[in-house]
Design goal:
The model is unreliable at 1-6, 18-22 and 168-173 (pLDDT under 50). The chain has six helices and 16 strands. It is flat, with a radius of gyration of 28 Å. The strands form four sheets. Strands 1, 2, 3, 13, 14 and 15 form a six-stranded mixed sheet that branches. Strands 4-16-12-5-9-8 form a six-stranded mixed sheet. The N and C termini lie far apart (67 Å). The protein has helices at 31-35, 97-101, 111-131, 152-155, 198-212, 224-231, and strands at 37-39, 46-51, 80-94, 185-186, 216-222, 235-240, 253-258, 273-276, 279-285, 290-293, 296-299, 303-307, 312-316, 322-326, 334-345, 352-355. It has one domain (28-52, 77-262, 269-355). It is α+β, with helices and mostly antiparallel strands.
Length: 359
């Protein structure tokens, strides 16, 4: 019997059959940064723009033959300067000389290039989570505090003068306010549960319409649980009771109603567009919606942003992701991947938010 049969080769130079591939399932979308307009390069880390309002209704007439005794100024009390900070996003990668030049890794032709590609993806995901968060703006103090850009959730309903936002308050008297109305924000302080109804969404859209006066198409960046809550609007489930009201008794019957053709041979239960009395909302699910506290990001799958993308802009400082070679002092080649970007929210009055605390 030959000694060099396959079982006897174990541990004696036999190579395993390792397929030349790597399976990657993590391919999460970044809808906000993909849809946001790319603005001009900011001239400074602190950049500004203007928001404006139109005059309200004036009623009554003018007595014939009277002289003008008063004048209106449709700038003071209507127009305001808003501002935000840009932020530096950075990733650094390094591979050893042996890894880069000698090791033959299945599925990878160049380990350094693969690391750079993932670093660019990491920066884009960091931008997505930051821009859609409640992070407040912050100036760089040269020591411990870096520049931070204020996220959309902070702009919608917030007023934080000196922290990147300057939306307005009642002081000084007569200063215009661009704080998002409370009716444009739903779910504050409550869990999502089953509280999302068509009436809740309609009222939010009505509040935005009361500010803009336009029937608009909005893009809603929604967490996965909020997306499921929208789909739940398609059907209703009821329990008939055999005892007192709201108490399910023995023998209760479950009745489920679906808004679809009963003869259809395909079961489709998904809401991607909500069309209401005052606007249309296109739903874009994301896994990057959450809150930021210091350097900690916490995902919240029950939140959502109702955005008019005409009011949203991301201003990039130079290349979206600049790759720079770092010195190799013997440990192996290294690269710096860096981007500078800041968020512009043109006018918070035209936006809305689902502010549920959790699912």
């Amino acid at each position: 019997m030959p000694l060099l049969t396959e079982p006897n080769l174990s541990g004696r130079g036999k190579r395993e059959d390792l397929m030349d591939m790597i399976a990657l399932v993590d391919a999460k979308d970044t809808p906000f940064t993909s849809m946001a307009r790319k603005g001009s390069k900011p001239g400074n880390m602190y950049f500004r723009w203007q928001a404006d309002q139109n005059p309200g209704v004036t009623v009554g007439g003018v007595v014939d033959g009277t002289d003008v005794t008063s004048y209106s100024n449709f700038v003071v009390g209507y127009r305001k300067e808003l501002a935000n900070y840009a932020q530096i996003f950075r990733q650094t990668v390094r591979v050893s000389k042996l890894t880069q030049d000698i090791a033959d890794v299945a599925g990878i032709r160049d380990e350094l290039s693969d690391n750079i590609a993932k670093a660019i993806i990491a920066i884009k995901r960091s931008m997505e989570a930051t821009f859609t968060s409640d992070q407040l703006g912050q100036p760089d103090n040269g020591t411990t505090n870096p520049y931070l850009t204020a996220g959309v959730q902070a702009w919608i309903g917030g007023d934080n003068i000196g922290t990147g936002l300057n939306i307005g308050t009642t002081a000084p008297v007569g200063a215009p306010s661009f704080i998002t109305p409370a009716n444009s924000i739903v779910g504050t302080g409550t869990a999502l549960g089953t509280s999302l109804t068509d009436t809740v969404v309609q009222n939010l859209l009505k509040s935005i319409y009361d500010q803009t006066g336009k029937y608009k198409s909005f893009d809603a960046i929604v967490g996965t649980d909020l997306k499921r809550a929208f789909t739940s609007l398609l059907g209703t489930t009821a329990l008939t009771t055999t005892t007192t009201a709201s108490v399910t008794g023995a023998g209760a019957t479950k009745v489920q109603t679906f808004q679809r053709d009963a003869a259809a041979d395909t079961f489709i239960q998904s809401v991607d567009v909500f069309q209401g009395d005052f606007g249309t909302v296109r739903l874009h699910p994301t896994t990057f919606l959450g809150t930021i506290s210091g350097s900690t990001w916490t995902q919240n799958t029950a939140r959502g942003l109702v955005l008019d993308m005409d009011l949203i802009e991301v201003r990039y400082g130079g290349n979206v992701a600049n790759v720079t070679a770092l010195p190799d002092y013997g440990a192996g080649p290294a690269r710096l991947v860096e981007a500078v970007a800041g968020l512009v929210v043109g006018n918070p009055l035209g936006l809305g938010k689902f502010n549920y605390t959790g699912a």
